[in-house]
Amino acid sequence: MKTLTVATWNINSVRLRIDQVIAFLKIHQPDVLALQETKCPPGQFPLKKLAAHGWPHLAEHGQKGYHGVAIISRWPLFDIERRDFCGMGDARHVSARVLGVRIHSLYVPAGGEEPDPQINPKFAHKLSFLEEMRQWLAALREIREDPMILCGDFNVAPYECDVWDHKKLLKVVTHTPVETDALKAILAESGLVDVVRRAHPAPRPLFTWWSYRGGRDWQSHDRGRRLDHIWASPALAARCEAVEVIRETRSWHRPSDHIPLIARFRLP
DNA sequence: ATGGCCGCCCTAGGCGGA
After folding, report:
1. What is the per-residue pLDDT across A59-105, written as a single tens digit (0 to 9) for each?
2. A172 beta carbon < 7 A from strand B?
3. Which of A45, A117, A167, A198 is the most buried (most CB within 10 A)?
4. R_g of chain A, CA atoms, integer Å
5. CA A67 → C1' B16, Å?
6. Peptide bond preceding A203: is omega within 30 degrees of 0, i.e. cis?
7. Using H for helix, E for strand and C for coil, what is the string for A136-179?
8. Domain span at residue A238?
9. CATH number assigned to the domain comprising residue A137
10. Cβ-contact A14, A38 below 8 angstroms
């Protein structure tokens, strides 16, 4: 039986952590890895090291210093697309087709500190981005017609069990009602399936990010949030046979503050 | 919320992250 294994990881600088990327690939052997926060200008992606280990295909959308997304693959990538959300010219989306499945790597804006779009332009940008995401997906006919995976750092923890303390985080950006309602509406209207939460149903806590500010003590308090997601089109979601949440990378030396997620699908 | 950090950039204080 042919399968497609897809991983997503906010790597927080791909050049700094390329050896961690390779270690992850060698251990978990995904066909495809979607990365966010590559912080790598176009053309400077460390592809040679990846190719030497068996992942020679790259779709990148990078910029200097901040943001940046990419898809790396064992298998050829076709029809690469880059969407410019909100007309900002920043690198937050790339997609490509692999083994007949379109895969999107997406990085939603963080939104700054203050959850008030009137006084915080970063939060206003985040809400605009989510609204554009809703309209884009609602109009995407291929969700119902073709297999598709949308994954990445959505910077929203939608459900109560997606944060370590729901009540304490209600006024904290990533878990405010305006954000969580927006993400739930996007999911519902798109028809996509949150395969990670389906595999680990509520009320089980499930996190993919822990702040650097907790120091090395991130596990004992476990004050995390589920900011990273894998959504699949319905027919493909029905073929999702495994989901893994890879917490061990958070304990590696100089880790990303996000951990990888993996989903495996049986292909027709 | 997060007390406490981290990575980037015209190398050093400011920006962005969340």
Report:
1. 999 999 999 999 999 999 999 999 999 999 999 999 999 999 999 99
2. yes
3. A45
4. 17
5. 9
6. yes
7. HHHCCCHHHHCCEEEEEECCCCCCHHHECCCCCCCCCCCCCHHH
8. 3-266
9. 3.60.10.10
10. yes
Q: For residues A212 and A164, what is the distance between their CA atoms, to the nearest angstrom? A: 15
Say how many domains are in chain A: 1
Q: Which helix (H) or strand (E) holds A88?
A: none
pLDDT at A191: 93
How long is the CA A110 to C1' B16 vector, in angstroms?
A: 9
The CA-to-CA distance between both ends of chain A, in Å, stands at 9
pTM, 2 dp = 0.97
Backbone angles phi, psi at A242, to 5 degrees: -160, 145
Through-space separation of residue A226 CA and nucleotide B16 C1' in angstroms? 20
Determine whether the distance from the CB of A248 to the nearest atom of strand B is below 7 Å: no
Specify the nucleotide whose C1' lies closest to residue A225 (CA).
B18
